[in-house]
Structure formats: C-alpha cells, structure tokens
Amino acid sequence: GNSVTQMEGPVTLSEEAFLTINCTYTATGYPSLFWYVQYPGEGLQLLLKATKADDKGSNKGFEATYRKETTSFHLEKGSVQVSDSAVYFCALTNAGGTSYGKLTFGQGTILTVHP
Amino acid sequence: DAMVIQNPRYQVTQFGKPVTLSCSQTLNHNVMYWYQQKSSQAPKLLFHYYDKDFNNEADTPDNFQSRRPNTSFCFLDIRSPGLGDAAMYLCATSRTGSSYNEQFFGPGTRLTVL
Predict the structure, then answer these.
(1) What's the DSSP call for residue A71?
(2) Block means of pLDDT (10 residues each) for chain B, length 114 residues?
(3) What is the end-to-end Cα distance of chain A in Å, rounded?
(4) Average pLDDT score over residue span A18-40
(5) pLDDT score of A100
(6) Interface list for B 49-108 with A (CB within 8 A)
(7) CB-CB: which of B6, B41, B106 is closest to A108?
C-alpha cells in the first residue's frame, strides 16, 4: 500500500532561516504529490503540487521537486517568516483509476518561526 | 469564490447526545470526503461519497454515519458521541477526471464533547 514519511518535528527556526522538511513516499504506479499547510484553527490548504517525475511545485516562496529516483518530495523555503508557522503535511494520491483522490498523508510537521 | 463551507465552525455536545455537522460546496465536485483530525495529527478518512455511492473506511466506527442528499451538501452524523470523538472534522471535495485528483478542504468543525 501507499505510505508517506515526514521528518520528525517540531521544527523551530528564526525568521529568515532556511527551511527543509523531508518527505519520502512508497506508492504503486505514478502518484501525484502534494504539500498541504494547516494554520492554527483552520482547515488544510494546498500549498503546492507535482504530478510527474522532475516536476517542481512552487508557491509563496516554497518549493518541492518530485524525485522518483529517491521517492522524495522535500519542502524548502529560502527565508521563512513568522507567518509561516503552521503544520505541514506531505501527501500523495494515485491519479486516475478507482482511487479518485484518496489521499495518503504523512504525520505532519509542526513549524514554529520566531522573530 | 467557489468554496467548501462547513457549519458550524465550533460545536459543543454532551456525551451520548446525537450531533450533525454539515458541509456544502459550490465547486460542483462529485466526490465528497469526511475526515477526523486530532491535535495536529494527520487527518483520518472516515468515508467518502462518489456521486451518490457511499464508501465507508473499514475502521470507521458504526457510531459515524453520513448523508448526501444532493451534490452540494453532505452531513456527518455522530449517533452517540463519546469523549474520544472530540476532534476537528474536515470536509473535502474533489472531481474525478482531473489529472491529479486535488482535494479542496473546508475550514473544519471543531467538536467538543462534554
């Protein structure tokens, strides 16, 4: 079956520091990969996505590249802000077929950014 | 803007008293999902509707039921809430036929059980 493993948290950084949150996956076929962000007290928002190998998803200064050879989709940002404090979830879904969007989530990584 | 709406945002109920959470969407998506999420853990899928077809996850307790009267609305019924059912409940939608099956989430309903 499918699985997603994220780096252990929580992660605490100072403002303007470089961020990496590791994500590796196990899946059949050719999954689509996502990073979702959840701000305190809110639902999940799609941060970025990649649908095939070597695709780079990017949004709000965050980036992640779909690496099929290492089955990874690490999230990076060059300079974090206090407003980036949230929980980040890596997820995958098998595109098409009968799975129609059933998501497999990683365990989530809590990020706290201090001024 | 097209969106997924959940009401209420906060719900308090008593132990054993039935409660219903609602979700509506203006995206005209044919698939709707209900998730349970506890304290920053990964959301846990309870069930989903593919059009009118109900699909229950194997480990979803019988205490949880769902209704989808039309494309736009979906309800989560908890027949006899226990203290362990206190959680955030998230509704999501997606559309089959898209290339990557993105799910769109509502803001969630936080359920407190007294």
Answers:
(1) T
(2) 88 96 94 92 92 92 96 96 96 78 89 96
(3) 41
(4) 93
(5) 60
(6) 50, 90, 92, 94, 96, 99-108
(7) B41
Would you give the end-to-end CA distance of chain B in angstroms?
A: 36
Asked whether the bond before A115 is cis by omega within 30 degrees of 0, the reply is: no
B6, B101, B103, B109: best to mutate for the A interface, most A CBs within 10 A: B101
Strands B4-7 and B19-25: what pairing? antiparallel
Judged by average pLDDT, the poorest of A15-24, A99-108, B61-70 is A99-108
**Is the four-CA dihedral B77, B72, B35, A86 of positive or negative sign?**
negative
Do the beta carbons of residue A103 and residue A91 sit within 8 Å? yes
- DSSP code for B105: E
Helix (H) or strand (E) holding B7: strand B4-7
Across residues A7-34, what is the average pLDDT? 92
Closest B-chain CA to A4: B42
Are β-strands A44-50 and B64-67 bridged in parallel, bridged antiparallel, or unpaired?
A: unpaired
Tokens of B2: 């097209």
CA-to-CA distance for B8 and B15, rounded, in angstroms? 18
Identify the three-state secondary structure at position A83: helix
Phi, psi of A83 (to 5 degrees): -70, -10
Rounded Cα distance between B84 and A71, Å, is 35
